[in-house]
């Protein structure tokens, strides 16, 4: 059998005696054997094929090797549909206390956070000019009454006419009315609390000059509180009077406060596209005025609904700002099968499934990232 010789350029050099008696060929610098290019390409192609085969083998092995997953089964329970909204705690009895007349504050008796009673003095304004006007009106009234008394005596003696007496009587009545007016205006310089409550905010300082109708205090009663929630216009049609509401606040993270819808405003806010919904709180509530809260307003309740863990339900790409179609992974013959489902009520821990699975189905809870339909799976120990 003949062997194809290597195609090389002649080797030039001298023979020298090796220590063992063998001959060595001394190659001139720059001269290298040259092999055929066709064989090099074949070797490179073979290496590529072997590498690809190895990758395919690894991929197929990974695909065939079962992935450990957590298996859950749908269960029956109560399903509650609710509308989410953010809100704030506010007082039902609330007043902004203002000054009816302009004046300088000469006495300031309360501060923010103080408890006040209805009729308690909050502020006194400088009333010296008003008091002078009242004293002048009283003097005019006294003069008018003396004039009236004199005219009546003259009438009895036939010296004064009835027309003159009537004019004197009218002047006396006007003087009396002016005294009443000045008395009421003097009272306006003393500002009192309109209700029992707490001073939530104080807008002025001692010695400050305030304008007429300026707001000086905000007073709120803590006896009756309510939630004012802003419901999106897409959800407001589902809200009904008397609907139960669960209220949560960051200040009480482990507690839900019950309430019930007492008012649904019939006109919405065009800028925020929301409608205001109000719900009264119990008298012993821990919530405080001004707290921001998260609310869930119950819109429907169903008994014996089919529920699955929330982590078992996945969604496709969003559509129109909302989550995409829902689906689950069901285990069939040791493989993961993607099954579309129709969901109902959605809760933080469980989701109602209206169609797509049954109680006997084995579902994958919290499927691993990258899990594909048809991939081999096994129940984790």
Task: Give an account of the 3D structure.
This protein folds into 3 domains: 68-78 and 303-379, conserved putative lor/sdh protein from methanococcus maripaludis s2 fold; 84-91 and 224-301, Elongation Factor Tu (Ef-tu), domain 3, CATH 2.40.30.170; 94-219, OB fold (Dihydrolipoamide Acetyltransferase, E2P) (Beta Barrel). With 381 residues, the chain is of the alpha+beta class. Helices cover 22% and strands 39% of the residues. Helix 2 packs antiparallel against helix 3 (162-187). The radius of gyration is 47 Å and the shape is rod-shaped. A 6-stranded antiparallel β-barrel has the order 4-13-16-15-14-17. Strands 5-12-10-7 form a 4-stranded antiparallel β-sheet, with no helix packed on it.
How would you describe this structure in keywords?
alpha+beta; Elongation Factor Tu (Ef-tu), domain 3; 381 residues; 3 helices; 3 domains; six-stranded antiparallel beta barrel; disordered N terminus; four-stranded antiparallel β-sheet; OB fold (Dihydrolipoamide Acetyltransferase, E2P); single chain
Summarize the topology:
Layout (H helix, E strand, L loop, with lengths): L14 E3 L5 E3 L11 H28 L2 E6 L2 E17 L2 E5 L4 E6 L6 E2 L4 E5 L2 H29 L5 H26 L2 E3 L4 E6 L6 E2 L4 E6 L4 E8 L11 E6 L2 E13 L9 E7 L11 E18 L4 E2 L10 E7 L2 E6 L1 E5 L3 E6 L7 E3 L11 E3 L2
Parallel strand pairs: 3-24
Antiparallel strand pairs: 1-2, 3-23, 4-13, 4-17, 5-12, 6-8, 6-11, 7-10, 8-9, 10-12, 13-16, 14-15, 14-17, 15-16, 17-22, 18-19, 19-20, 21-22
């Amino acid at each position: 059998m003949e062997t194809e010789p290597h195609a090389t350029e002649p080797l030039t050099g001298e023979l020298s005696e090796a220590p063992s008696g063998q001959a060595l060929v001394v190659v001139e610098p720059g001269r290298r054997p040259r092999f055929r290019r066709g064989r090099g390409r074949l070797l490179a192609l073979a290496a590529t094929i072997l590498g690809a085969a190895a990758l395919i083998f690894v991929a197929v092995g990974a695909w065939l090797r079962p992935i450990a997953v957590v298996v859950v089964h749908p269960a029956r329970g109560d399903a509650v549909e609710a509308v989410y909204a953010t809100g704030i705690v506010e007082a039902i009895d609330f007043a902004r206390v203002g000054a009816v007349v302009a004046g300088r504050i000469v006495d300031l008796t309360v501060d923010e956070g103080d408890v006040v009673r209805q009729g308690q003095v909050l502020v006194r304004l400088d009333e010296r000019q008003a008091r002078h006007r009242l004293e002048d009106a009283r003097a005019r009234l006294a003069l008018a009454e003396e004039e009236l008394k004199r005219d009546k005596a003259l009438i009895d003696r036939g010296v004064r006419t009835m027309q003159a007496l009537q004019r004197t009587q009218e002047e006396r009545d006007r003087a009396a009315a002016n005294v009443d007016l000045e008395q009421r205006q003097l009272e306006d310089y003393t500002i009192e609390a309109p209700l029992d409550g707490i001073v939530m905010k104080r807008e002025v300082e001692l010695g400050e000059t305030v304008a007429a109708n300026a707001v000086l205090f905000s007073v709120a009663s803590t006896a009756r509180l309510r939630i004012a929630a802003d419901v999106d216009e897409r959800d407001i049609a589902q809200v009904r009077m008397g609907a139960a509401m669960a209220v949560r606040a960051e200040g009480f993270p482990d507690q839900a406060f019950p309430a019930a819808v007492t008012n649904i405003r019939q006109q919405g806010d065009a800028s925020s596209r929301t409608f205001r919904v109000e719900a009264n709180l119990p008298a012993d509530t821990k919530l405080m005025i001004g707290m921001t809260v998260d609310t869930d307003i119950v819109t429907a309740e169903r008994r014996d609904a089919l529920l699955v863990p929330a982590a078992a339900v996945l969604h496709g790409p969003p559509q129109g700002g909302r989550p995409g179609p829902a689906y689950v992974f069901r285990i069939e013959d040791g493989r993961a099968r993607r099954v579309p489902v129709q969901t109902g009520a959605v809760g933080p821990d469980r989701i109602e499934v209206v169609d797509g699975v049954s109680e006997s189905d084995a579902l994958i809870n919290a499927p691993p990232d990258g899990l594909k339909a048809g991939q081999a799976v096994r129940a984790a120990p």
